[in-house]
Amino acid sequence: MGKNMMFNEPTSTISLNKPIKTLFCLLISWTIVRCLSMENIQILLKYMKKQKYLSPMTFDEAMIVYQSIHQMKRWAWVRLACLETSLALLMYAYFEGKSVDFCVGVKLYPFESHAWVEVNGLPVQEDESTEKYKKIMMI
Q1: Which of 11, 25, 112 has the alpha carbon at shortest distance from 66?
Q2: In sequence order, which residues have a C-beta less than 8 Å from that of residue 29 and are 6 or more positions away?
Q3: pLDDT tens for residues 50-79?
Q4: I need a labelling partner for 26 at 20 to 30 A (CA). Which of 50, 70, 77, 94 fits?
Q5: 51: domain range?
Q6: Could you tell me the sign of the dihedral formed by the alpha carbons of 133, 135, 137, 139, in that order?
């Protein structure tokens, strides 16, 4: 590579190299899902969002945090599905003073439920289309 070759550095204010914070967020989300009903999870998340001013997270920041969560998830000794990983991303954003939208949706025939995170109305790193789900919760 030549000396004049330049690389674009990510322009993020998120502290990205924090595997302990990522692991902590996964642990919190796993515990919340195991200990609280969806109704109480909704109450908790709404309360958290009201407690301090949160600036919006950019889509690029959310993608980087998502990748960090999924890299850490490979080492988990328990099942971490869409609900736990979406909550972990929300928690990570919250601890960084950022805001994302946490969504839960359902579809019928056959019944499925799914949780995901959106930034500016765009789902963050979804393998399947979230349009087939009817949103029943958005925080």
Answers
A1: 25
A2: 80, 83, 84, 85, 86, 87, 88, 90, 91
A3: 888 889 999 999 999 999 999 998 888 888
A4: 50
A5: 19-138
A6: positive
In this prediction the pTM is 0.84
Q: How many domains does the chain have?
A: 1
> Would 75 be classed as within a structural domain?
yes
Q: What is the spatial distance between Cα 117 and Cα 124, in angstroms, rounded to a whole number? A: 6
Selection from 118, 27, 116 nearest residue 73 by Cα: 27
pLDDT tens-digit readout, 92-130: 999 999 999 999 999 998 999 999 999 999 999 887 788
Cα 108 from chain centroid?
Answer: 24
Q: Read off the DSSP letter of residue 131.
A: G
Q: Residue type for 62, please? A: A
The answer to the question of residue 3 being in a domain is no
> Coil, strand, or helix at residue 103?
strand
In a domain, 2, yes or no: no
Residue 5 one-letter amino acid: M
